[in-house]
Design goal:
The complex is a heterodimer of chains A (311) and B (278). By secondary structure, chain A is of the alpha/beta class. Chain A contains 15 helices and eight strands. Chain A has one domain: 2-enoyl-CoA Hydratase, Chain A, domain 1 (Alpha-Beta Complex). In chain A, helix 10 links the parallel strand 5 and strand 6. Chain B has two domains: 33 residues, no CATH class; 224 residues, 2-enoyl-CoA Hydratase, Chain A, domain 1 (Alpha-Beta Complex). Chain B is built from eleven helices and seven strands. The chains are: A alpha/beta (311), B alpha/beta (278).
């Protein structure tokens, strides 16, 4: 039987994946067994159960958040606060630090560990002020030639009255626009939940990665179930239908690579998870730093403009 | 669609009978088809703006006979083999049948008072104007067409947001259209956005708010999250004009609210203003 169109597409993706320095590089050789298993899993289509497991792991309360990775990956981290207009949004963190002696800027959503912090950081759901803070720091990076790293971990942008009055939709669009204009290298990684517009706002990057158990989706499983099944309890069915797991995102060409996690998920060994994420970010940046800025920007736009399936 | 009535157990009130599409939801005035068409689908009594279909919108903006449609044959695929209560392909087929359109956006070259422009007009009747791969691609091609011909792009939006049935690829239409707008800007051309009711979610959070000039129709809902979502999650009491064009104007998110009968004239002025000196 000739291979189906689906299989062909998958093989092509797998081929690309194997050629990625991120996955084939010596730095990750200790992980080769795991990577092989990961590739096998991608080849096998994740089951509905696998997908739901990713949803649960991506939201696990002990999962490392942005600042957990920042303190393990970057040296000399200096956090930058505030959007210079109205507020300092705790759901979005930003700053500059050193990665292998190179200064980089980093933006990312931040969830809270305990009740007070969760409230202060609004469960990682930024207001427009958060996106404007990210824009300001990206512009700072552009001015000084710092690469931009972006760690995505949000259920979505905050849906509130004030958020709308302050222009949530426009802020998300403006943040993407800012990224589409950068001529410095940009790498984004979805480390937990990549929830809809709130996530893509900071993910229009040259290289987009996803951690093995992260999810990236147009709507939350519960939101989708509520609208299409009229029952939020059908979230599992919704997730199985829109496939937010990393393997499917890779297959659809939405991400460029998957960052492996320790056995059982990133929360089982945050240090190891941070090591693997750090390697992946370094490898991705190494591939970008020598490309001229105009060319980076041209390729970045061409990549996003090629996404979609139509006849 | 089969619906099980559980109203006795849940104390839910039965849904009110569906209103006729030609009955004004605000003042209940009722119109014949030809009356509404004549009035650009604006209620003569209270000024309520009914939803306007894409072709009627184009007719109301473009010089007669000037519109040349582009990419009319683009159709949605079903990359995820998506199935909720019904298959996605069935929903698309039904929308095609009921609207006579291939998807929720119509693009093409046009002229307004003799000045060339490109139009990209959404149709809310096609699956709630949701943005999937076809809408993203058509908008992007409209940006390129405008850039190549050296004319501004006028887009009229009416959309509930990204099309869930296309999953993550629907979300990717946000960065895709944003990149297309930036390419249009690099080509030195303007983007003029007209937001009709409703312009929410992914369309608001991408190209609709990136115009050089942002116009809105009276009463149009323009919020990233819908009122029910905001109410449900935050339990906040919503202001009466939550997310409406008027609130957006007050908070500085649009340049002007333009009643439909004045839209063509306003666009004509803007095209004149953005036109390069002769």
């Amino acid at each position: 039987m000739p291979p189906s169109e689906h299989e062909l597409r998958l093989r092509e993706r797998l081929g690309r994946l194997r050629n990625m320095p991120l996955l084939g590089g010596a730095k990750l050789s200790g992980e080769l067994d795991r990577l092989q298993r990961q590739l096998d899993r991608i080849a096998q289509q994740p089951s509905d159960e696998d997908i739901w497991r990713s949803v649960e792991l991506a939201r696990h309360e002990d999962r490392p958040y942005t600042l957990d990775y920042v303190e393990r990956i970057l040296d000399d981290w200096f956090e930058l606060h505030g959007d210079r207009g109205r507020a300092d949004d705790g759901a979005m963190v930003s700053g500059i630090g050193k990665l292998d002696g190179r200064t980089v800027a980093l933006v990312g959503q931040q969830k809270g560990r305990d009740i007070q912090e969760r409230a202060r950081r609004q469960f990682g759901m930024p207001n427009p002020e958060g996106y404007r803070k990210a824009i300001r720091v990206m512009e700072l990076a552009q001015l000084h030639g710092f690469p931009v790293l972006s760690l995505v971990d949000t259920p979505g942008a905050y849906p509130g009255v004030a958020a709308e009055q302050h222009g949530q939709g426009g802020a998300i669009a403006a943040s993407q626009q800012a990224m589409a204009r950068l001529t410095v290298p940009t790498v984004a990684c979805v480390i937990g939940e990549g929830g809809s517009g709130g996530a893509i706002a900071i993910a229009l990057a040259d290289t987009v990665l996803m951690m093995e158990n992260a999810i990236y989706s147009v709507i939350s499983p519960e939101g989708c179930a509520m609208i299409l099944w009229r029952d939020a309890g059908e979230a599992k069915k919704a997730a199985a239908a829109f496939k937010p797991d990393a393997a499917h995102c890779l297959e659809l060409g939405v991400i460029d690579g998957i960052v492996p996690e320790p056995e059982g998920g990133a929360h089982e060994d945050p240090d190891a998870a941070a090591r693997m994420l750090g390697e992946a970010l370094r490898d991705a940046l190494d591939d970008l730093v020598d490309v001229p800025g105009d060319e980076l920007r041209r390729r970045r736009r061409a990549k996003f403009r090629s996404l979609g399936v139509y006849a | 669609m089969a619906k099980i009535d559980v109203s006795i157990e849940t104390d839910e009130k039965p849904a009110p009978p569906p209103k006729h599409p030609n009955t004004c939801p605000v003042c209940h005035s009722h119109y014949r088809d030809d009356e509404l068409e004549q009035a650009l689908s604006v209620c003569a009594h209270c000024g309520h703006h009914f939803t306007m279909r894409a072709r009627a919108r184009i007719d109301s903006i473009a010089d007669p006979g000037s519109f040349v449609e582009e990419a009319a044959d683009l159709h949605s695929e079903d990359p995820l083999s998506f199935f909720d209560l019904r298959p996605y392909v069935e929903r698309i087929a039904e929308a095609e049948m009921s609207t006579g359109l291939a998807d929720a956006m119509v693009i093409g070259q046009a002229a307004v008072d003799g000045r060339g422009c490109e139009l990209a007009v959404m149709d809310f009747s096609f699956m709630g104007g949701s943005m999937g791969s076809v809408v993203g691609e058509k908008f992007s091609r409209a940006c390129d067409s405008a850039g190549e011909r050296g004319v501004p792009l006028i887009t009229v939006t009416g959309s509930g947001g990204a099309r869930m049935q296309e999953g993550i690829l629907a979300l990717m239409q946000l960065p895709k259209t944003v990149c297309a707008v930036e390419d249009l800007h690099d080509a030195g051309q303007a983007l003029i956005c007209v937001m009709a009711h409703p312009t929410t979610g992914g369309v608001l959070a991408s190209f609709a708010t990136l115009g050089d000039v942002l116009l809105a129709e009276p009463g149009a809902l323009m919020s990233f999250a819908g009122p029910r979502v905001v109410q449900g999650i935050t339990r906040e009491k919503l202001p009466e004009d939550f997310g409406r064009a008027e609130q957006n104007l007050r908070f500085g998110h649009v340049d002007a609210i333009v009643p439909r009968p004045e839209l063509r004239g306003t666009l004509s002025r803007l095209l004149r203003l953005f036109d390069a000196p002769e």
